[in-house]
Amino acid sequence: YVDLALKFGESYELNVGARVEQGNKETKFREPGSFDAPFEVKKVDKVDVLPSINMKYKIGESSNLRLSASKTITRPVLMEAYPLEFVNLDGTIENGNEDIVNSDNYNFDLKFEIFPSNKELFAITAFSKYLQNPIERLFENTAGSGGQIITYDNSKKAVMFGAELEFLVQLDRLTENLSDFSLGFNTSLMYTKVNSENSLETNPERKLQGASPWLINADLKYEFDFSNTWSNSLSLVYNVYGKRIYAVGTRNLDHYYEMPFNKLDFIWSSKLSDNWDLKFAAENLLNPKYEIKMGEDSKKEIVEAHNFDEETFKQFHCYDLDFSLQVQQTHRAVVTFQVLLEHFSEGNYSKTWIEETLKLHEINVARCSMTLHSCCWRCGGKRT
Fold first, then answer.
1. Residue 154, Cα to own-chain centre: how many angstroms?
2. Architecture of domain 74-379
3. For the whole prediction, is pTM greater than 0.90?
């Protein structure tokens, strides 16, 4: 990468750079049923030039105006690009797409920010994105795969416009008794539109799959010290998103929608010394229902091999404990212990079903190289 920083007078700063990435991928596979056939080989060898520019205008001692533009890429994860069909334990079938390609993303942001103090922030951002070949999850109703299948494909293009409001305030503004507390909040409103050339889609012009029209995040933090070198913070973190497309409907089927989900986490961070850090996180304390629902605008009946009209799952509590050792300024080792507590209260589940479900969690972690709660089907297959 190349990076250049320039300063013009006391008010203007310019940062210009570019990153060059070369990606090589080789996929070997056999078509379904071709057990003795030679492996087919799919190769990708691509060089991407990713420029970026950031400009800052200093309005006053505590406020700035920022303008940025950049190009980024989104690569498909393994199961989106690999032509392997597998059956989830809830009966749904997924199949990757070997012809899927990277998404090119063009990002633009205009941000106004104020710093009332060295620990406080107020910011308003307007942003837009233009996506070429966005990667999306699709749902098909077929007779050859047990009735229904989830797959992945590129749409032609998509646009996104939105605004974000963010603030961080110290609560000693209310009373000195709250001097160790702070409140953070941000919310976003987004408009998205996709143009797809896939003739199988029920609605070629629609919202972007996985994009919520609104998001809300908030956190309440309490900071305290046990000694001059031992600092701690306790945080309650809340987030919720608006109804969004979980899978794009095809062949006259309406979309499947991910319903709003309220998530509350507790995080304890402790800096034991200059080199040792300790972090404990208890996630999803509220444990609400996670729901996927089919829209009501299908133009044909769904095949009933598996009733996917509506899926309702209980989420799980997840507990993380991280130990971090920083040997030098640029070297850090982290050890993580994770405990998963599943809740099987929504229905009658056999012992074998539960055991197989927990095995699936382990398989997904190894397959996706992600944390438990971000990749498995019980959490909606969120991409993080």
1. 18
2. Beta Barrel (2.40)
3. no
